[in-house]
Amino acid sequence: MTSTGIRYETGPTIAVAVADKTAAWNDGHFIGDEEIVTFAEHMAAGEIELNVFNQVITASYEDPLGALAAMAGYWPGRCIVTEAPDEVAEAIQIEPHLGYVNTEEGEDVINEELEDITADSEVSS
User: What are the boundaries of each domain within the chain?
Assistant: First the structure.
């Protein structure tokens, strides 16, 4: 088989690594480790909302950020993004000074109120 040398333009590629598994998405298709791909396909098909990267993102076959969420949802907090366009990388980053905790009542507290809560907390050793 000979190559024609024709290159086809594709959309952005999103790639992740989770433990010893890898997967990627490009133009609506997931490839890679069977477990991650199966999970991502189910999430994207159902357009499931997933809590990943400290935000809720709807899993999708069509949207790069949604595709990343579908794969990252396999093991939230353990997913490493190995390839993504700048706009996707920027969308999942949070500023380092932001904090996220729950109050005793279970309410989410972000940033400004965090200093008040941590200042009142006792550190036990």
Answer: 13-92, 95-125
